[in-house]
Specification:
This protein has about 260 residues and is mainly α. The chain has eleven helices and five strands. It folds into two domains: about 55 residues, no CATH class; about 180 residues, Intergrase catalytic core (hpI Integrase, Chain A, Orthogonal Bundle). Strands 3-4-5 form a three-stranded antiparallel sheet. A two-stranded antiparallel sheet has the order 1-2. The relative contact order is 0.11.
Length: about 260
Amino acid sequence: MWAASITGYHTTTYNNTIATLKHIFEEAISVGRLLVNPAAKLKRIGRLRRVEGGIVGEPGEQLTEEEREALDLVDPEEKRWYPTPDQFQEILKQMKKHKFGPTKAAVEFAELLAYTGCRLSEANRLRWRDVDWEKNRIRVDGAKGRITASASSSIRFVPINDALATLLKRLEKAAPKRQPTDKIARVKECRGTLQRACRELKMPRQLDHHDLRHWFATQAIGQSIPVPVVADWLGHKDGGTLLLKTYRHEDEAINQQWVKKLKFK
């Protein structure tokens, strides 16, 4: 079961706050200060659980993708399929074959997610002023939907890797009149085009936006980048604990690469 709520607070904290609000308003009604309880329709959040098809709460309502991303839900028991770099390029090529207006922008958005490890909401906040070529990094606002006194702590910097540099330079060339405050992405999502390409290529699974974030992590860890470094790039505050739980079941080929480095004499 999952302890967090879709608000970003612990389930108990959220539910206790609702109970307190209702009690305060009921007291106001009892002394004639209010006619109705404005918190009466607020519902408690049950513990989240994984079922076939996703994560649900006690009411049985499926969480939206944005809610999943806000929670950064990862099931350490579940080994999911992710494409190899070659397969990912195949998917991008297949996406480009879809002949409708925003196709090119959707492909670019998929690349942006995959090469930065950003959540969907984070990628939608990226602006050209966030790109720092001098320091070879991009500024990512990791705020999860609410403003807090420590909002600045949600800012992180992700180094610009070769694939991301190629994408950004291509986008810069296509938008010579861009302003620093303009968004980098020209669309807000690419899920439909991405999943259609996966179906057409008969891939083992249809990817969504958040899968591209996990793909970034699997590629980085598979190429021997230290887990704490990858955790920093992703904006995890636990130093890599979640990544270790999630990706401890590496591919057999990667395991064999590691074992060759293990020497006892």
